[in-house]
Design brief:
The complex is a heterotrimer of chains A (557), B (328) and C (276). Chain A has 557 residues and is an alpha/beta fold. Helices cover 38% and strands 24% of the residues of chain A. Chain C has 13 helices and no strands. Classes of the chains: A alpha/beta (557), B mainly alpha (328), C mainly alpha (276).
Amino acid sequence: MNTSSKNTDSVVATADSPVLRIENLYVQLPLGSERRYAVEGVSYDLAPKEILCVVGESGSGKSLTARAVMGLLPAPHVQYEKGQIVFQGEDLTKVSEARMRQVRGGEISMIFQEPMTALNPVMRIGEQIDEVIRFHASQPRKLRRQLALQLLEDVQLPDPSRIMSAYPHELSGGQRQRAMIAMALALEPKVLIADEPTTALDVTTQAQILRLIKELQAKHDTGVLFITHDFGVVADIADRVAVMQHGKIVEIGSVDKVLNHPEHPYTQALTDAVPSLIPRMAKEVVSAPILEVRNLVKTYRSGGGWFGLGKPVKEVNACDSVNVVLNDAETLGIVGESGSGKSTLARCIVRLLSTDAGEIIYRGQDLCALDRSSMRPYRSKIQMVFQDPYASLNPRATVGRIITEGPVILGESKSEAQSRAREMLELVGLDARAFERYPHEFSGGQRQRIGLARALALQPEVLVADEPVSALDVSIQAQVLDLLADIRDRLQLSMVFITHDLRVAAQVCDRIAVMRLGQVVEQGPTAQLFDNAQHPYTQELLDAVPGREWSRLRALS
Amino acid sequence: MSQAGKRSRYVLKRLLHAIPVVLAIIVVNFFLLQLAEGDAVDVLAGEAGSATPEYMAQLREKFGLDQPLPVQLGVYMKNMLSFDLGYSFRHDMPVSQLVLDRLVPTLLLMVSTITLAVGFGIILGLVAASNLNTWKDNVISIFALISYATPLFWVGLMMIVVFSLKLRWFPTSGMENVAMFYEGWDRVKDIAHHLVMPTLTLSLFYLALYTRFMRASMLEQASMDYVTTARAKGLTERRIVFVHILRNALLPVVTMAGVQVGSLIGGSVIVESVFAWPGLGMLAFEALFSRDLNLLLGIFLLSALLVVAINLVVDLLYSFLDPRIEVG
Amino acid sequence: MSFWRRFCRNRSAVVGLIILAIVVLIAASAHLLFPEDPFKLVGQSMSPPGENGFLFGSDTLGRDVAAGMAHGARVSLLIGLIATTVAVSLGVLLGAFAGYFGGWVDDVLMRVTEMFQTIPSFIFAILIVAIMKPSINSVIIAIAVVSWPAVARLVRGEFLAMRNREFVQACHIIGMSDWRIMVREILPNCLSPIIVTGSLMVATAILIESGLAFLGLGDPNIISWGFQIGAGRTVLRSAWWVCTFPGIAIMLTVLAINLVGEGLNDAMNPRLRERT
């Protein structure tokens, strides 16, 4: 539309002048939202060859700022109101849609959190890369193919020509994200926006992807706007950091300044909430097993079907002869990546899943040998806290019903159960008036407290916690962890704590068992495991924890 | 496994899935026979004593009616599987021959209807979704709503009133003008001329269905993450809609088209009887009037087989559209 | 309250509700508006609409088309409602078992459902009615038998998804019985899709009933819209009104129910509405 904007290539960006400058940006939320603005007066610069991390909790507006740069706000509900987004001297809020299309993918590109849903499921990877090149540069087919192969090689994907003709579902999560990165870097953009690109990945894969982004960024002199909630990632990758809260930037500066000498109280609170990698003081563990898992085997079978013509029969050894011991009043951590079988183990212990072989011995009684009715008296003794605060409470039941249901089923009188439910609500730090309300009236952290109250109402001796804080923001996470620790000590609970996060494990667990592909590869006291890991996989896990170096320095000071 | 290998495996699997369905349909047929008044032979002979007593006795023996029920079922299944559907005294012809003779007109009607309904349904749904909340969307949505609510036979009758009786554009009934002894292209044109109104009538409801479904499917796909990615790649809206969203949106529509085939055959009973189209549906209508239950059962069996066959074709088509078969 | 407000935000749903209310009113007061038996020959045959005191004309035998329509409304709504209730109950029961227990229960039930969905449903309904002899009961049974699989599939899907939700697992851990989990915990969470599907099914049931009656498979002692059209088709040339008006009645009623069903859908799933 306006031809002047097409001549921006002549505006030479010097090393100092920012490649991208956001000035006083306002993005509106729909009427009736909690806040009027998703992004309120945000300004920041991105220099060429720089990695700027924008960090904040959910709802801080960090992602929407990035979407605004791309002109991809989820219209019509969320809209740009005012402010400038200057890319190489050109205000992107004023350019035509046609020019914006040139910018997107060509000069500024973006990668997303979920590589599975971000790729078109019915289009081959090669075609998805090719269309970026084709839409921005006119090149013969053969050259485009060469370029695509080169790109796939650059992102260190094995056998690029096979990947070219593969569909997204045929790749692993890490491979998909690599393919996304290849696509984003196809035309050597000046700016790469990475919106939580490693959040959906396992910690070891995350470390690889972070390394890759940093390498490629250095090689191509790309400015990277990296959006994350994880301070560990920030410490590893950022040159500068901007901290966002409620749609505003509260602090911006070099990575050393923001992470190690934060000025704003919110930044201080956030960095303090990041669990340290130095294990907490271990408790004197008295060897008095309350729960023992012996040679537990659980295999998932899928496929087969009639005439053996269904999906090919697939067997997954979710638990492959697992042995762990939980001592009285001890917290045992089960650590592993997705698919390690840690959640299966938890579900076997609470008898949600049947086992194929092995024993689960609680105070001398093998629970696997019990049928439904003889299991009843043991039900209350072992309780569970779940991961997803939004799925773990029945949306149609009041909090009171949710908490009292268990005791009533196990034979307690209604009034007794009710009075204890109120007690439990107070114990987990909620108002007793919550009793009459429904789950949707509470925040994620509060819901986790309700879930904890439900488990505690049965007066268990063993609490199995399956990733209880991994769906929570870091500040809420710290509160819930404190609460768990407090209650565990007060009630002398023994706890099995499932987590993928070694930082959390370091702060919560007395002993840790590391799982991989259904097997426990190593177990031992937390401090010993962190200082002197024996198994190479444990070492790999420890090395992959983002912000390791930062944490070490912080602990020293 | 290669894509082609996966596909043939998938289709083979669907083929094998169809076998128990066919067997089950025969069993249902058998029990329907049991439900009818009198013994099965009364039904098989077409009631009202149009069969000779000798034939009745022969039938009783053939079906082993003095035997226990499971044996009877076995005999019945054997007969059905060898496509021995009995004899229709009304038409003085074996049922199998009768239904096979009427298969072609029904297939003609179905194929033209499916083509029209799916084709235009997809186009209209696409237009409505890409012009969301504009007058185009509104007109299409209202058209679909009304078509979706109108009974087929009434549409047929009203079309006859308007286009045949008043405007005299199309013939009221039949498949061809037999008295004219057309041959070659003339005959094709004549049949096509007769085909217009039955096809329009039968496709109206399904056109509405696919339009609504396609619109909803397009809107759902448009909110997916990969569409944001496509935008972030700087693609044009045209390419995003026609390449990225369209192909994904088609998948549930194709599945749905397969599911609807059964109901389409049911609809053809009504449409054929309104337009006297000499297919299976018309035959069913005649059988209903002459209370020739066995013929009705034969038609039912054949149309069920037809649905199974068409579903297989749809499955094959689907396997070309969705690379995720065998995985998801 | 907020549900009602959300429903009213969909204007076409309100229009549907008004039309439906009128149809229900006419059906309920049919014996007051037209006290005579609708089968009774009450005047000049083949009178065009508006003549000889016939609002919508009379048929070949001199029966009042309008009277038939009013009484037919009662039959259509009744059959639609009862058949749907039967089909939904059956579908919920089977779908819930299949989805909740999975494994071979699911395999068997779903294979049966699959078969029922493969069978050309309208021909199946014709067969059932023809074999059982046309009566109001056989029509209801036929419609229910061909309608339940859709509900079963829906409910199975919902139960299958809910079964692995963490709140259901929590119920297992406190030792709740399967029956109670299904009825008290899962079912309330899938009521809204069931209600929406059920309401749309009433419309389909009315269409099936009219089709059966059109083919002469209605209860011979009860007047219905489909029967009127079927009886009038022979005089299409000379008396178009006999077929036309009952058809409009079917269309309006079905349209109204569909609109109400969609309104319910929007009101019960506010998130879905946001998106589209």
